[in-house]
Every structure is written in structure tokens, then in C-alpha cells.
Design goal:
The complex is a heterotrimer of chains A (384), B (401) and C (259). With 384 residues, chain A is α+β, with helices and mostly antiparallel strands. In chain A, 55% of the residues lie in helices and 15% in strands. Chain A has helices at residues 7-34, 39-47, 66-79, 81-100, 103-114, 230-266, 278-306, 312-343, 349-359, 366-383, and strands at 120-123, 139-143, 146-157, 164-170, 180-186, 192-194, 208-219, 223-224, 268-269, 272-273. Chain A is globular, with a radius of gyration of 21 Å. In chain C, 28% of the residues lie in helices and 29% in strands. Chain C is of the alpha/beta class and 259 residues long. Classes of the chains: A alpha+beta (384), B alpha/beta (401), C alpha/beta (259).
Amino acid sequence: MDYFLTEEQQMIVDVARQITEEMIIPQRAELDEKEEFPAEILKAIAKADLFGLYIPEEYGGFGGGCFEMVLALEQFGRGCVGIATSFAASALGAYPILISGSDELKRKYMPVIARGEKWAAFGLTEANAGSDASGIQTTAVLDGDEWVLNGTKQWITNGGDAQIYSVIAITDRSKGPRGASMFVVEDTDPGFSYGAKEKKLGIRASSTRELIFKDCRIPKERLIGRQGTGFFTVMKTLDLSRPGIASLGVGLGQAALDEAVNYAKQRVQFGKPVISFQAVQHILADMAIQLEASRSLVYATARYINTEPKDMAKYSSMCKVMATDMAMKVSTDAVQVLAGYGYMREYPVEKMMRDAKILQIYEGTNQIQRNVIGQALNKEYSRN
Amino acid sequence: MLKIDIDACIGCGICESTCTFGAIKVEDGHAVVGDNCTLCGSCVEVCEVEALTIERTAKEDGGDLAEWSGVWVFAEFRNGRIAPVSFELLGVGRRLADLRSAPLAAVLLGSGLDRQARELIAYGADRVYVVDEPALADFTDDAYGNVLATLAREHKPEILLAGATAIGRSFIPRVATMLATGLTADCTDLAIRSDDGVLLQTRPAFGGNIMATIECPHTRPQMATVRPLVMKPCQYDDQRQGEIVEVKLDPALLESRVKVLESVRSKDEQVNITEADILVAGGRGLESEKGFGLVRELAEVLGGAVAASRAAVDSGWIGYPHQVGQTGKTVCPKVYVACGISGAIQHLVGMQSADAIIAINRDENAPIFGVATYGIVGNLFEVLPALIDRLKEQRSGKAGN
Amino acid sequence: MKIVVCVKQVPDAKDVRLDPKTNTMAREGVQSIMNPYDRHALEAAVQLKEQFGGTVVALSMGPPQAEETLREAVACGADEAVLVSDRAFAGADTWATTYTLGRAIDKLGGVDLIICGKQAIDGDTAQVGPGLAQRLDLPYVAYAKKILGCAEGKIRLERLMDDGYDVVEMKLPGLLTVVKEINEPRVPSLKGKMKAKSMKARVLTAADLEADPASLGLQGSTTQVVRVFSPEFRAERCMLTGTVSEQVEQLLEKLESLL
């Protein structure tokens, strides 16, 4: 279906697709098997000018918005969600600085991120603070000209491979939701270390590690925005990035559908290609319907967000829920269509199914997303 | 230019369906030619109303073609010996020379050539031109090209053949350009057209998906390169008599603008796969370097060499010198065992002339079975170990008694 | 350093088939692409430019649609694009092609290095590179697999041989043909594509080249195609069936007689 992209948007799709076909698809199985961080692929993405897609031109970026990121992420997601997540997570780590950071902070970090010289990561989650982000226990105390951070972050994507970390810590517990602030921590800061790489069900090419702050000292200029605006920055960041995750789901769903249809056309049983059986056709039809509906919602949301509206949270969560639940269902169905072959590691669909699961969990579980949507509806309807 | 007589054209479309390049179409009731036209003339031949013509200004022959006679073969000498392709070329050269009732000569360049010329005579040459100079010890396009072109201008062979080796493919095009004549590369077949004695050169194009027969009608010599192991050499006859002509040339011709600093033989290349009688080749179906180990084991137990499809080389399981196919080597062993190789055309062109092909693949529809003498549809990881074990048993059984 | 890269737009060879009954090439769904070896040639040129400074000119001889390929070259780092295009060039074999490209490069002037791909995947002759060097009376190295360095007007590189490789040194100006091992070609960048979008290639016609008409196209070719046909394959097959051990036993029997 034609989504009426501009010429520039089509170029983004073409470049991302070429990288996906020439680099991501040939290497995805091996990187997944070896749990290896896709450094070379990220460098190629940077060279193709895609790392700076969402960064304003004045900081060396392309000046695109949410929709442009969605277009690139959909292509990368078709190749491998693990590799695509590594790229997406860098954007996630950069967004807080873009949203709330001072001009100096942006000038310091945005150009190097745009050039792909340094990668970023986003440090929110902790052992006791997942869905309940307010439960974070990492603290930051001002000591003279430096902030001193103490605490541990858990399951941070790009942890250990990134150089720039946007980290949220409690600066004044008495202020409740206004008691946290975001900071930029660099990998060379004293007192910063990271844990071993986690072993995961899927997205195994993506690095997931603990971040450990033990009297980690950073210059006070590293505070992102005003003290106490931490959770605000986090919410705005997630509103911007959720359609990106949704887009990974659309890409994965498309890849799964492609594999399933191609297989069903060639696999002959009972004297016919299995696609001639209604049972199989119905599965494929439902996959296709949900995929296209998700794509439409994600694109509509992302285009809307490009206009910087006030009420993006609800739609951002909606497209994330729809596209990621779809990705899980479609990839599982793809395995079913390929049946025995689908279960074998030699065929790419089992990996898609393993990779899809995380999409329903990170950047806010789909249950939390539904909370967000429910609360937004409540608020919306109260005004009238 | 292709000329279309619009009045004569009836818009039947035969030209459109004949055109191999999609360059002519019927629009508004008559034929229209596009930019892709290569002037091959196929449409002109099939047009039933003679509405199509190709304007060709009568091309003059480049000089008196009758002055050119004889078949020449460039004999490649490297690392102390003559490359086997040279003997194969003498095999086809002999046949062509006999058809043209002309002598067959070889041109041998190098340094420290000793008695190499005798071998060329034993393989069928009537005469060998030997240019033995220290300056020719290393291959350079300048020196080798100058020497061959100078000799060709002087002695005027009608046909000049060379091996499509790294050396041949590098300098022969330069020689053809120096001699202002046509060259056809990688020929798989050479024949003489009976009505006019012209050399018909057949070669693959589009990665081997299409074959083309080519001629060089107006200039001499007619030049062609041939891949190793495509032609067969004559029987070696050390009693055969022939003439050896030692040539001395102006030293200026032996100078080169490119200097060879070092020659490095590849570590992997202890065995040249093109010379093995038995090849065991592995492809994607082996899945991993460890899986590929089964191919190595089978090769060892059979006393053969290891080869690979491009997929295996790209995966890093073995080096490029072992690659068989369009972008690798052409092989013609007695036995070629293809393990986990699907048989894409790009691989087939490199091994399809093997005497016997054995294919083992889990996919019964794999194209390799279309060229295999014997095929086994099965799981490599069951068949290969079983085969290896039985062969080892057989060997130890024999040795024991 | 002024580097000219010769690029050719070709049909994607792996998809090309001849229908053996009608002897026509199935063109449906066959994409036009930049000859894969030329992508490596372009990458080599752009890397040299990034290292030593200079300009990269992408040059192509072809019909007007070949401008797409030149656009791709600009998107991947070429600074200029030149299209040599004229009906008179149709039907050219490598002899006529090297004449035409040679005239074009003479016209461009001041060229230090010419880089070509090893061969084009449609013609597969690998003759244009060396032939072009000869037309321009330039030294050349074919099958370059690694560029080791460039200094004092000389370039040092590794050239692929059948049994390994040679390390060679060539004076500039000169010509190289490259093999795939030499590099990983980059994907066009977004900025590159945007630059390429507004680019118009400089077009050189036969008149611009002051070319001798008798040396162009079909007229100027020394070889011509007599016929085109589909390759044939052996039809005999004998499938060995049964359990794994049965198949192996049958194979052993066959091997005995073969070896």
C-alpha cells in the first residue's frame, strides 16, 4: 500500500533497506548465535547518515522526526530486532538530552552521536523499579562542583558498549515525583562500571548489562534540564520512542509474514502447495490484516507526533501495544505455518518469535501501556 | 542502426518475441526500436516481410587476411613449470590447425626455460618460439604484451589462443588492443566454420545463464582465451619432432612500468584443486566450519582435494583458492562429490564437465541433481560419517590383507 | 588526485534466463543494477580520495537510463558524473568500447588513476580495463586485491594470481582493475542520495568526443555475435535410494568402479 512518503522519506527507506539486505540479514543469525554486539553494522548505519536522523541539523543531524525514525526502524526490524534495538537504544539515550538538555549539553553530545562516533544508552530500570519507575533508588548528591551517583541500573540496552548514558537518579526523595533528575554519565567517569552481559531469550545481538555507580563523580554541568524534572524527561522520552519500538514490531511482522507466505507457496503436502489449504490461508490472512492495521496506526501516530502535539502519550502507547502484540502473534503464527522447519534454528522464524517477546515488555510493558491509555481516556472524557 | 520500414511492417510482433534484449516492440501497429538494441540482427532474420534492415557500411578487412596463417598458443610459464592449460590449448590448437591445414606453434616467455620447449612439442606443437630473458622472470603486462604482440605482427598467425588464467586474462586484452583485433574471453568451445574457415568462439555470458557464439570476421589474428580444464590435451609423445626458435628482441620491449616486488604463494594452496583427480566439495548445507570438517575428512579418506562453493568460502570455512564456480576455479576431475551444494548455475559452470558427479543434498529438488551422475537425497550429517566410516573400513581391510 | 571510475549499468545477471524454446531473454523482473565489481572500484576510489584528497569522477558509457547508475555512484561518494551516450555507440564490443571510453578520458584530462571493476557481469569478458589502459598507453595492474600505499607518484598493491598474489608497484598515471576482496562497498548515505538527486550528469556524445564514426558501435567492433543459446545440461541421473546405510553401500560400489 502506498503511504505517500515524501521523496526524502523514501530515500531513508531505501538506504535503511539496503543496509538491512546487504549487512543485517546476512549477519543476523551469527550475531544472535554468538551474542555479539553489531558494532560494524552500527558504523555502517552511521556512515549512511542515519544515526543523526532525529537530531536537529544545527547539531549535525538530519533534522527528521519520529516518522523518519519509524521508517528506518521498520527496515532494520525486518532484518533483526536485536541489531535494530542497538540502534534504537542509542536514540533512546540521546532523546533526554535533546528534550531537556541545555544548548551546551546538546552541542557537546549530539554531533558525536549523529556521526555515530559514540553510542548512547538510557538508564532508568532498576531491580526494584520496572513498571513502577518511581521506585528507583539510585541517588545523586551534589558535592561542591560535582554530582555523586550511587546505585545500580538493571538490564540496560547498550550497557557497556555505549559511551554516553542518560541516567535518572533521586535528587530529593521528599519531593516525590519531582524528586528525580537526569544526568549524562560517560563511560570514562570515575566510579562507573558495568556488569556482565545478560543471557537472554531473544535479541541476543543486543548487549544488556547492569550499570553500577559507586561514588560516581560527574561535573555538575551534566545535569539534564532543571533539577527535579527527571520523570518528566523520562515520560517525554518514552512518548517519542515508543512508536519506534512499535515500528520494530511492524518490521518483524513483515519479515515473518514474508517467510510464511514464501514457504507456504513452495512446501508441497498432499500433492499441493500448503498455501492452497484454507486453514493456512486464514492464518496468513489474519497475519496480513493485523500487520497492515498496525503499520497504519504506527505511521499515523508518528506523523502526528512530527507535528509536536500536546497529547501524544495516548497514541504513542496505543501503537506500541498494537504493533508489539501483533508482532508476537504474527511471528508465532509464522513458526506454525513453517511447522517443523519453523522450529529449526536454520530457518529465521524461530528467532523472530524469540525476538518479538521483548517488544511487549520493554519501554513500558503492554500492561503499563494500557494503564496509560486508560488514564488518558479518563482524563479526556472528564474535560467534557 | 536498425532501420524499420514502417510501410512494410505488419506489426505481427515476431521481432518483439525474438529479441533477446527486449529492444524492439510493436507500438501503434508497427515495430519501434529502443535504446537497448545491440544490432545483433536476430530480428532481421525472422522478419517475414523484410521490414527490418541493419545498415552496415561494408567493413573493410584490416589488410589482406590471407597473409595470416597458422595457429598459435601462448604457453604460460610460472614457478618453474608450464601451466597445464597450455597443453590443453595445444590439444584444441592441433585440431584447429589441422582443419586449417596450417602449422601449430607455441610462444614461450620466461626466464631459465631450459628444456621446457620440448614439452610443448611433445604435446603437439610444430614449432616453439622461445623468449628466454631475465626481464621476463616475473609476469608483467608490459613486457609480456610487447613480446607477444611483436611476434604476432611479425609472423602473422591467423588464430592466437591463451589460457584464461590470471595472467592470460590480464595481458591478452592488451595484446588484442595492440594488434587492433578482436578477442573473445573464456571460450568453452572453438570450431571452424566450414564455408569460410572463420573461427567460431563460444562463451558464457550473464554469469553463465546464456551462451553466445562469436566471430572476428575482419581482423587478424582471431584471439581467444580458454579456461583451464575445458579442453583436452593431445597424448604426450616425446618422440614428436618440432622446431625450436630462440628469439632475441630489442631490450626496450622488455621494460615494464609496473615492478613486481614479491610473489606470495597462498598457504592454503598446497594442492591446486584444478589438478586433482578427485574433489570433495562442500557448500552451505554443511552449516558450519565444524560441519565442513566432514568434507575435509572425506577428501582425505578418498585421497582427493577439498573444494568449496562460494557460500562456504564466504562463510570463512576455507580459502578462496578452493572455490569452484563462475567466480572461482573451473575444475574437471574424474570424480566431483558435491556435499550440501544446491547447484546454482554459478557453481555448475565451474564443475559440470567433471567425468562423474556425486551429489548429496537434503533437498530432492536441488538443481545439482540435474547434473549429478549419482545422487543421494539425505542428511549430510548421517550420510557423510557413514560413508567415511565404510571407506576407512575398506581401506584398513585391504591394508590388513 | 583525479580518479576516474568506470561504472556500468547491467541487468542483474543471476536473474537472466533464456527461454530455450523461443531463444528470448526473460526481462520481466530483471533489475538494472550497478555492476557489482564497479561498486568495489568506486569504493576503492572514494577511500583513496578520503585518504589523499582529490576528486572522483564516475564515468559510464550507456543509454540515457545509465544516469541512474551514475546517480548511485554520486550517492556513494563520487564528486562528478559523466555519461557517454549516443545511438552511435550501440552494438559496441570491447574494442569499440575501449575506443569510446578512451576518447572520453582524454577529453576529461588530468587523470591520475583509472579504476575499473574486474569484469561486467553481463559480458563477463574482463577485457575493457586492460584494453582501455592500452588505448591510453597507460601502465595497469589487473585483479588488484589490496591497495598497500600511494606515495611519490607510485601506487603499491597486491594483485591476485592463480596461486596466491604478487606485490607490485605501478607509476601513476595508470589503471587498475579490482576484485571483490579489495573492500566492502559502502551503502549510499542519505546526504549522498540527496546530493545525487539534484545532480545532472555531464553528457558526452560522439560529436563531443570528436570520435571517428568508423570506430564506434557495431561498425567499430572487431567481434560480432553469431548466435545466442541456452546452456544444456546432462540429463542422466541415477538417484541412490533407501536407508542411509543402503545409500552408502550403493555409492561405495559406484566409487569402486570410478576410482
